[in-house]
Structure formats: C-alpha cells, structure tokens
Amino acid sequence: ANYGPNPICKGCLSCSKDNGCIRCQHKLFFFLRREGMRQYGECLHSCPSGYYGLRTPDMNRCSRCRIENCDSCFSRDFCTKCKTGFYSHRGRCFRGCPPGFAALEELMECVEGCEVGQWSEWGTCSRNNKTCGFKWGLETRTRQIVKKPAKDTIPCPTIAESRRCKMALRHCPGGKLRRRPTKTKDKKKKKKNLMERAQKQHSIFLATDKTSQ
C-alpha cells in the first residue's frame, strides 16, 4: 500500500494500510509523520530535521528536539546543529554569543574568546616624552590579556587606548613655552607678502612706462 510519494510499509515489521508502519525492523527508527489531520508511521534509517533518534529495548523512535531554533539534536536537551542564522553554544542556539565567547562564523559556533582584565588608570599627560612645554598632550591607559582565545583567528579587544589631555605645566622650568603660529598670523603674513609683491610689480610697471616715454 502507498500513501503519497513514499511507500508506507517499507522497513516495517507490521503495517496498516491506513496508519502505515506500526513496528519497525531492527536498527530503523519509527517516525510518526503528520499531514493535516492525518498521521501515519514510517521506518527511517535516520530521523528528519528537528528530531533525534531515541533507542529503546522495545523500539527505536524519532523524538522531537525540545530546544528552540534547533535543526538537529543529540538528545532532547542538547542541540548539535542550529537553524540558519543561529549560533550553537553548549547545546543551545543563540542569535549572538554570550559574554566571554566569540562567534566562529564558518561553523556557526560560540567558542571561548579573548578575555581581558580591567583598564588601568590614565597615565601622565605628555608629548614628545615631555610633561611640560606644550598646552596639549596625550594620556594612555592599558589592560592585560587574561586568557588567550581558543582560536588564533579570533581577535582580542583593544588593550591600549589614548586620549587628548591638557598639560598640567605649560612652561618647563628654565624654558619657554613652544607655540605654533596661529592661523590668524599665517593669514596676516600671507596678505603682507601679496601686498609687497603687488607694490613691486607696480614699481616695475611705472619704471617701464617712463622709459617708453
């Protein structure tokens, strides 16, 4: 007897025309398929997506995975492969990996990531290895790698960062404050040069004009 495209009684020890397989041959898994309001038994070598094989002395069965977003599982509460877009972590499926774990994209798994310690205090504000003589400098803080990642391809977070800071001492003892020329001074100097050039060209023009007369 056939139901749909699949032979109902294939691999069965006992079979019903209306309900399909009732008992399966040794090593096969009994799977109860539902289509609308109707259900019938099948005997399979492996369970379909969302189910796992449960072996018992009486008969092997396909049991549904109880883990959310799981595609295939090893047992009722341990997923081995998550649905597309989800990462596998300790038998569960997640949209993103938990804190302390990094996503391994090629396997869609969460592995132990790079663990870093707390930030140190901000260091002394300095510039060109000097703590005076400038108005602005940089201060830096660091943190240590506590645990290296399980995979070399997983990068560690930043372990050093710097920020702009204002110097505590603008004048070095016995020295002068180094200043950069401001934009205003640069503009005035440029304007003065243009004026001098224009006056020079005007003088040359007047001298040439007198000579031609």
UniProtKB/TrEMBL annotation:
Molecular functions per Gene Ontology: heparin binding
Domain Spondin-like TSP1: 114-167
Subcellular location(s) of the protein: Secreted
Record has Signal as a keyword: yes
TM helices/strands, residue ranges: none
GO biological process terms held by the UniProt record: Wnt signaling pathway
CDD domains from the UniProt entry: FU
Listed Gene3D superfamilies: Hormone Receptor, Insulin-like Growth Factor Receptor 1, Chain A, domain 2, Thrombospondin type-1 (TSP1) repeat
The R-spondin Fu-CRD domain, residue ranges: 9-110
GO cellular component, one term: extracellular region
Feature: compositional bias, Basic residues: 176-192
Domain of life: Eukaryota
Similarity comment: family membership: Belongs to the R-spondin family.
Protein name (record): R-spondin-2
Encoding gene (name): Rspo2
